[in-house]
Amino acid sequence: MSIMKNVMYWAVLVGMAITLMEQGSPVHSQGDSQSDNKVMDNITVREGETVFLRCEQGDVVTHTAWLNRSSILYAGEDKWSVDPRVSLVTLNQEEFTIKIENVDMTDEGQYVCAVQTSSRPRTTSVHVLVQVPPKIINFSRDIVVNEGSNVTLVCQASGKPEPSISWKFISNSGDLASDDELLEISSISRQRAGVYECTAVNEIDTDVQTVDITVNYAPSVSEGRDAGVTLGQRGVLECEADAVPEADFEWYKDNRRIFNGFDDMEIVSTGSLSKLTFYNVSDGDYGNYTCVAINKLGSSNTSFLMYVVIEPTSSTLLQGPRAVQDGSGGAKAVNFHTCLLFIALLPFLLRF
Fold first, then answer.
1. Residues 117 and 83 in one domain
2. What CATH number is given to the structural domain containing 231?
3. How far is it between the farthest Cα atoms of the chain?
4. Which of 92, 218, 271, 274 has its CA 20 to 30 A from that of 25?
5. How many CB atoms lie within 10 A of CB 9?
6. Does the residue 267 lie in any domain?
7. pLDDT number for residue 329
8. Is there a single domain that holds both residue 106 and residue 14?
């Protein structure tokens, strides 16, 4: 007979709890303390934390239980839940408290404490709200595009409350690029290449991811500088090209290609710079040269003139040879020395 009574009590308690959960309960409201069905304020907990569910007993309690979505967690001291995170904390005449450790989103919802006293059954319900820090779950990978292409970057995040999304172009002083999940760049230029940062924020935390955009473009060669070099001395022609990917360089004298080590010349190309070095300039080295920069998107070229610089005086030689001189400097040196020579010969010319 006592077993049958217990079954009836549990049936009444569980039935009351299920009915209450099906009816729902108002959010952030405090029920009437005299009512058989009491609604407590919401409990807000962050994902990963521990929540305590406390039920006041009072009177003479014969049976008590904690339920969640019609599943019994604890019936008195007996654990019905198979979840190892759920455990009993206190059970006496004053309170019935259980705890749930390492809370996650599956724990969110309504919980009901059903109590059978000597006078009447009653329930206490509480709604657990789980806050989740933002996590970027869908994000664009590093990409390589050609200049002029349209680019779309994606940044989607989960979290509760729902996180806000913002984009920054951090390669350019952190300029704000967008406040949407999608960042669209039309006809991208080389100036917009670099690192973009997506930030997902809610009141719990922040998550950040970065993506790098590489923009390919054809070479652009700087204007060549003519060089004046003394016969027998060392001379250098320098060619600089802006390109992505980095350019390959080719050197030509007139229409003939120059290869490394040809006629005592050396070609050294590093990154954006290529140098053509003459270790012992001869008469045949003077003339017009062309530097060509090439990558898969195109090519560009520039021309140089290497001309002779005459140093007729011993005082000039004592100062040491100048390996490379620009065009205007070389011309001025030739004119200056020519004038000195003319002045020195003038007394001899006047005798005739």
1. yes
2. 2.60.40.10
3. 155
4. 92
5. 16
6. yes
7. 43
8. yes
Same domain, yes or no: 265 and 325: yes
Res. 310 pLDDT band, cuts 50 70 90: confident
SS (H, E, C) the chain: CHHHHHHHHHHHHHHHHHHHHHHCCCCCCCCCCCCCEEECCCEEEECCCCEEEEEECCCCEEEEEEEECCEEEEECCEECCCCCCEEEEEECCCEEEEEECCCCHHHCEEEEEEEEECCCEEEEEEEEEEEEEEEEEEECCCEEEECCCCEEEEEEEEEECCCEEEEEEHHHCCEEEECCCEEEECCCCHHHCEEEEEEEECCCCEEEEEEEEEEEEEEEECCCCCEEECCCCCEEEEEEEEEECCCEEEEEECCEEECCCHHHEEEEEECCEEEEEECCCCHHHCEEEEEEEEECCEEEEEEEEEEECCCCCHHHHHCCCCCCECHHHHHHHHHHHHHHHHHHHHHHHHCC
**Residue 82 lies inside a defined structural domain of this protein:** yes
Q: Is residue 65 part of a domain?
A: yes
Query: What are the angstrom distances between the C-alpha of 116 and each of 35, 213, 314?
Result: 14, 66, 119
Q: Tell me the per-residue pLDDT of 232-285, one tens digit each, with 9 for 90 and over.
A: 999 999 999 999 999 999 999 998 999 988 778 999 999 999 999 999 999 999
* Neighbour count for residue 194 (Cβ, 10 Å): 14
Question: Both 262 and 276 in a single domain?
Answer: yes
Pairing of the two strands 235-244 and 273-278: antiparallel
Q: Are residues 229 and 284 in the same domain?
A: yes
82 and 108 fall within a common domain: yes
Domain count, the chain: 3
Domain that holds residue 308: 222-333
**Structure pTM?**
0.69
- What six digits make up the tokens of 321? 């040879």
% of the chain with per-residue pLDDT over 70: 77
Q: What is the mean pLDDT of residues 211-219?
A: 97
The number of beta carbons lying within 10 Å of the beta carbon of residue 335 is 10
Of the residues 108, 132, 156, the one at which a domain ends:
132
